[in-house]
Amino acid sequence: TASVLVEQREGYRVVMLNRPDRLNSFNADMHHALKAALDAAEADAACRAVLLTGAGPGFSAGQDLSEVQPKPGETPDLSVTIDTLYNPLVRKLRALPMPVVCAVNGIAAGAGANIALACDIVLAARSAKFLQAFAKIALIPDSGGTWFLPRLAGDARARGMALLGEPLPAETAEAWGMIWKCVDDAALMETAHALCAKFAEAPTGALAAIKSALDAAATNSLDAQLDLERDVQQRLGRAHDYNEGVAAFMEKRAPRFRGRG
Q: Each residue of 104-134: pLDDT tens digit?
């Protein structure tokens, strides 16, 4: 059975982690399959959004520990797995030139939680939970966890989640500003599909520029960010979708954006 399933919809793709018997925990095969799915979405000019979710009762339990369990007398080098698999995945999600909607349908633990937080719009079922389980196995949050958590939830809450390793309900994650929205379980996928359908008609080039500008703001000074905004607006103002957006506004009609064209 494929460890990642891909479904093409009108204007977007659904990418589903598919190891439900292991709570969609990551092994090397699933990493490679997910990379291939994201690369294919990026290469498809008709794809203007990605919906990432998990099969079965959970989104992802993080790393499949059976794959990295040290053998007797062995000293493992965890940096290899991080450097070759997890870090490229997080960078890919942030750099995709389209919105990535993550539908967290159950537990999101360890790297699974931080991969979800790397997405642009995170929806979670009311029954879902986010768990920074790293301290329980004597590690630190990886896959961007130490970067995302304090920025999304604040330093005090980030420290509590990372040091205590207690599950955080989806409703609390929404209240803390970690995710976009918590919805009833039955409405999760309908809500996620509706968002992707909306993005499929949006000016994708501008949305990609929003993603990169917000990421740059994390380390830029105000002066540098003002210059970045000026330069990006110059580029976007010369594109078809800006002209179409203004024309549609003046003519009081729905715009017909080309997306990445």
A: 999 999 999 999 999 999 999 999 999 999 9
Q: How far apart are CA 26 and CA 36, in angstroms?
A: 15
The pTM score is 0.96
Residues pairing with 53 in the sheet: 16, 103
Cβ neighbours around 41 below 10 Å, total: 22
Is the Cβ–Cβ distance between 101 and 95 less than 8 Å?
no
Residue 213, token pair as written in the block: 């500008």
Is 58 in a helix, a strand, or coil? Answer: coil
DSSP state of 56: T
Measured CA to CA, the distance from residue 52 to residue 190 in angstroms comes to 13
Largest CA distance in the chain: 73
Measured distance CA(28)–CA(54) in Å, rounded: 17
User: Using alpha carbons only, how large is the chain's radius of gyration in Å?
Assistant: 19
The single residue listed with the structure tokens 């896959």 is: 143
Alpha helices (runs of H) in the chain, residue ranges in sequence order = 28-43, 65-68, 78-81, 87-95, 111-117, 145-153, 155-164, 170-175, 188-199, 204-217, 222-237, 240-250
